[in-house]
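Hi R.,

As promised on Friday, here is the backbone we talked about, encoded as structure tokens. Could you run it through your design pipeline when you get a chance and send me back a sequence?
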């Protein structure tokens, strides 16, 4: 029976950190309608920097095991993967997976093309090369087999047997992940592999989206299994597995233009990548009681590659164009977290009973392992090896390492909630409002000191450094002026906390000061429409009807104009829009484009439906007041 033998290094058990490689795709003009240039660039073979949207004069720097710039060849990328391959010849597992936004170059990296083969064909060729070299000198027989599957809409489909049904993912009592019924074909040369791989890749589900003409709609997994058997007694047998995975890209469907089936596919892709992110968070968290591997087929399959038994390399593919800024930023943060995962590799070894003939790896044996295990036993094993009984928070990031954006937005929400709770009659009376503003400022100060602490902690995180953009010898990375949006002043976008640190507190006032004259007029209008205590909701509907409809329309149009093309300062000129919210609006605009109607504002983080009526009332009255 196969058993786990710990990989030892003298007295110490060996652990293996996930190696993180980042590859930047060459700049493509077709993805840069505004001709803004690149938002990210390499500094050296390990470091890169991305522009800081909060402050365009700064960049955020990241450090990884390897950084591959735009000119990197396929062979150079392969060389950063090659060191983990020898492990599979000694009964250990290894995995390489390409992660990143749609269109960033994952398939190019993993599959490549006939004249620029990617990591998968190069790795398989290398494995054959190593096996052939070893066959001649060592007393072991080697056998290599391959399987190829895709996870499409949370279904596991056999690419070597198209038309097959959704396959189940199982775990044996040694925590090996198995897929009963999956085709395992013995291959004896690279050309055997090539003959199967190329047509099977065409079985993979791809489709054209706005971002990528040939976008992978599934996660593709090539599994190469190397079984080696000792000639002499005790006829040890070791099985090493190599997973080569081309993940589907994370997608923002407002940009991909996905609808119908594409949207459904995208939902499944994003969900599994979200689960992958949760798994990484749990592995990094000292407090998580359960690693949610079972929440998606992808993570279930990767269970013995992530935080498990494998030597892993994660290739994070990123794109340089501003259009991908938030995807790139997210991918880099994910890559940074993944760097901290430690795997515990072991050797999967069987010792044959001496009286029996030497067991040779063959297809039949695979079938025994993957296809004929009695179901009851399998269920028992599953139950026994179930590691994750309890629920864990569905947060994307662990308490010990939440993402910058999440932390900032959570704090932003906190500010909003304080606001909602503490100032029900904010517009009722100027004195009351001032008092409430004062209270809010106090709260803001408190939050800012917490934020400062957060940012200090962030500064200390390995791999993520924030420094001035000008500390390197390269010319500063700066955004080119957009040729498409000349009318719109370019603003550094969002991530409110850090910005509030830099801004004087006065600028964060929730209610913007107005001219005395305008304020008087507004107060007059408020006096007419203000509801009695506790009846705000019913009056919120009625107050508009008391105003001239054409004036009302003009005011709404003006507000919409400000939302769509206003600078940070102009946005902050709106009622109930402080510095943070103005930046959130700019950020939303950056990602989603124009607000089609005022109601869209509810979609902006922190602008809840509950606050929206107050915002509308205050601004319409203010705009009207200003135009009197
Ligand atoms: N390093 C590179 N050099 C040249 N072209 C590249 C490179 N990386 C990607 N490309 C090109 O960019 C386009 C998108 O790449 P690719 O299909 O590999 O992206 P992807 O990340 O796999 O996208 P998806 O997640 O949508 O499948 C392709 O036309 C590809 O040939």
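Update: got your reply. Pasting your designed sequence below so it's all in one thread:
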């Amino acid at each position: 029976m196969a058993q786990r033998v710990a990989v030892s290094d003298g007295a110490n058990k060996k652990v293996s950190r996930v190696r993180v490689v980042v590859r930047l795709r060459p700049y493509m003009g077709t993805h840069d309608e505004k001709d803004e240039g690149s938002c990210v660039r390499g500094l050296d073979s390990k470091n890169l920097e991305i522009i800081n949207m909060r402050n365009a004069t700064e960049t955020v720097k990241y450090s990884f095991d390897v950084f591959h710039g735009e000119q990197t060849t396929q062979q150079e990328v392969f060389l950063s993967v090659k060191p983990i391959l020898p492990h599979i010849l000694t009964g250990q597992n290894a995995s390489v997976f390409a992660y990143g936004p749609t269109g960033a170059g994952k398939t190019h990296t993993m599959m490549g093309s006939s004249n620029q083969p990617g990591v998968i064909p190069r790795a398989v060729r290398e494995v054959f090369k190593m096996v052939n070299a070893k066959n001649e000198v060592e007393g072991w027989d080697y056998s290599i087999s391959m399987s190829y599957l895709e996870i499409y809409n949370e279904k596991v489909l056999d690419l070597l047997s198209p038309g097959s049904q959704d396959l189940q993912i199982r775990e044996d009592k040694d925590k090996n992940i198995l897929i009963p019924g999956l085709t395992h074909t013995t291959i004896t040369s690279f050309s055997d592999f090539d003959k199967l791989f190329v047509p099977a890749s065409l079985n993979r589900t791809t489709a054209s989206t706005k971002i990528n003409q040939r976008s992978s709609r599934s996660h593709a997994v090539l599994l190469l299994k190397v079984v080696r058997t000792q000639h002499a007694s005790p006829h040890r047998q070791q099985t090493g597995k190599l997973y080569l995975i081309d993940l589907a890209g994370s997608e923002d469907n407002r940009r991909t233009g996905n609808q119908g089936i594409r949207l459904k596919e995208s939902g499944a892709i994003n969900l599994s990548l979200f689960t992958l992110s949760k798994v990484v968070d749990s592995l990094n968290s000292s407090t998580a009681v359960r690693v949610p591997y079972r929440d998606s087929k992808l993570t279930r399959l990767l269970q013995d590659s992530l935080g498990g038994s494998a030597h892993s390399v994660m290739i994070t593919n990123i794109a340089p164009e501003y259009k991908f800024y938030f995807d790139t930023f997210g991918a880099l943060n994910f890559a940074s977290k993944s760097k901290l995962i430690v795997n515990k590799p072991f050797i999967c070894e069987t010792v044959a009973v001496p009286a029996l003939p030497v067991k040779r790896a063959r297809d039949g044996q695979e079938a025994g392992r993957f296809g004929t295990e009695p179901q009851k036993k399998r269920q028992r094993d599953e139950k026994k090896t179930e590691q994750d009984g309890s629920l864990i928070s569905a947060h994307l990031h662990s308490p010990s390492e939440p993402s910058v954006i999440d932390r900032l937005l959570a704090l932003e929400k906190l500010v909003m909630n304080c606001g909602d709770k503490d100032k029900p009659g904010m517009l009722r009376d100027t004195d009351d409002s001032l008092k409430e503003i004062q209270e809010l400022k106090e709260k803001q100060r408190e939050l800012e000191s917490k934020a400062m602490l957060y940012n200090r902690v962030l500064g200390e995180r390995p791999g993520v450094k924030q420094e001035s953009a000008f500390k390197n010898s390269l010319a500063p990375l700066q955004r080119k002026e957009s040729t498409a949006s000349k009318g719109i002043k370019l603003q550094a976008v969002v991530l409110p906390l850090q910005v509030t640190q830099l801004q004087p507190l006065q600028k964060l006032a929730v209610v913007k000061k107005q001219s005395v004259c305008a304020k008087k007029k507004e107060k007059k209008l408020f006096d007419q429409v203000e509801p009695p205590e506790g009846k705000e909701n019913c009056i919120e509907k009625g107050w508009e009807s008391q105003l001239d409809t054409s004036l009302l329309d003009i005011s709404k149009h003006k507000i919409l104009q400000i939302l769509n093309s206003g600078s940070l300062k102009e946005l902050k000129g709106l009622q109930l829009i402080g510095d943070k919210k103005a930046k959130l609006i700019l950020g939303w605009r950056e990602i989603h484009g124009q607000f089609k109607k005022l109601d869209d504002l509810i979609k902006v983080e922190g602008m809840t439906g509950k606050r929206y009526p107050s915002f509308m009332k205050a601004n319409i009255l203010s705009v009207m007041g200003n135009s009197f």
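One thing I noticed while checking it: The longest helix spans residues 430-460.

Thanks again,
M.
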